[in-house]
Amino acid sequence: MRRLAVGLVVVGLFSAPASAHGLGWASETLTPPESAEETRLEGVSCSSTSFCVGAGWYVYGGEFLQAGGTSYSWNGSSWSGANLLSGADVAADGASCTSGSFCVVVGEYEKGLTYATHWNGTKWSLVSTPNPHEEGDDLNGVSCTSSSACTAVGSGPFGGKTVALRWNGTSWSTQTTPNPGTLQNVLDGVSCTSLTHCVGVGHKESVEGSATTLAMTWNGTTWTTQTTPNPAGALSASAKAVSCTSSTSCVAVGVYQVASGPLNFAMHWDGSSWSLKSVKLPGETNFGWLEGVSCTSSSFCMAVGAYEKIGQGVFAMAQKWNGTSWAAEKPASPGKSFNELKAVSCTASNWCKATGHYLNGGGVMSPFADHFSG
């Protein structure tokens, strides 16, 4: 998705041990880049309880908006930062780390070009990526199983065509993907469990304004479209994120529209078919949507997003899967009027890090993280 004059934010988040936070959820505010007028975190990936990377974008420049890139890292005692692609128009949306010495962040660069930057444990480096449609390509998500195996997904010009790229440890290459929708085909999230198994999710559209869920699988050779359900009464529906723990266990979450507004949903893959699972909104809530999900087993997943109380504001939302049902959690919301979690990464059933953004007291959109200790 195109954004005017944005920069890359890559944040290394240090997480104190669960005992330091106490059980439940704790909010952690992050310092925006200097001169940032708006900062949003869109993705997060944790390889351990002591190493996470969050990715996003920011805007600065006053009347004449400018773009720049910066990164932050935590060394256990202090924060440090360095410029990344200063002066470039970058929107980062997805992150995946396999260790403290290998991470990939993907997004959109300049005039609709795919973007990937890699972390080697010391520094971030821009890595060349192909553009299947030459212009208008955007990467929304990435999943790595090792430093030599990553898959990134997104969409082509105006969301018309799906995009998938593969990293083999040396270079990125384009993969051929199906496009079942005649108007739109978008992949927003991806999860890989091996070299021969990845699942990408998003939406397709053949009737204007009536998107339906989309899922496709990679078997090591080809991408194939799967049959997916849509919530009853949905005017449109889109899967925003997916997390797989094996080739027979995946969970996707997203948002669907009814006449009154947006609602959240979850669908589960059992190795043979996708099925919808009931996800109830927190009490006294009008609307809600899910943006991210992370599973550590078939009996534990955490999904995050936001819910709205009309006349009161938007608040961070989390839903936890226990293998049988979904139940609402109570993540922290640092802002009084707007809070949204966009991504989550869990290393165990009692340890998760979620990232997003909130409207601070000065009316500026700022980054924050929520920590879950089961």
Q: Your description of this structure?
A:
The chain has one domain: Neuraminidase, CATH 2.120.10. Helix content is 1%, strand content 60%. It has 1 helix and 29 strands. The protein has one helix at 18-21, and strands at residues 7-13, 24-29, 38-48, 51-59, 70-74, 79-83, 90-99, 102-109, 113-119, 124-126, 138-146, 149-155, 162-167, 172-175, 184-194, 197-205, 212-218, 223-226, 236-246, 249-258, 261-269, 274-277, 287-297, 300-309, 313-321, 326-328, 339-348, 351-359, 365-373. The radius of gyration is 19 Å and the shape is globular. Mean pLDDT is 87; it is low at 1-5, 13-19, 63-70 and 73-80.
Beta strand %: over 45%
* N-to-C order of helices and strands: EHEEEEEEEEEEEEEEEEEEEEEEEEEEEE
Total domain modules: 1
Fraction of residues in helices? Answer: under 10%
Can you tell me the CATH class? Mainly Beta
Task: Show unreliable segments.
Answer: 1-5, 13-19, 63-70, 73-80
The total count of helices amounts to 1
Q: Tell me the CATH superfamily.
A: Fucose-specific lectin
TL;DR of this structure?
The chain has 374 residues and is an all-beta fold. The chain is 1% helix and 60% strand. The two termini are 34 Å apart.
Which properties best describe this structure?
1 helix; globular; 374 residues; mainly beta; single chain; Neuraminidase
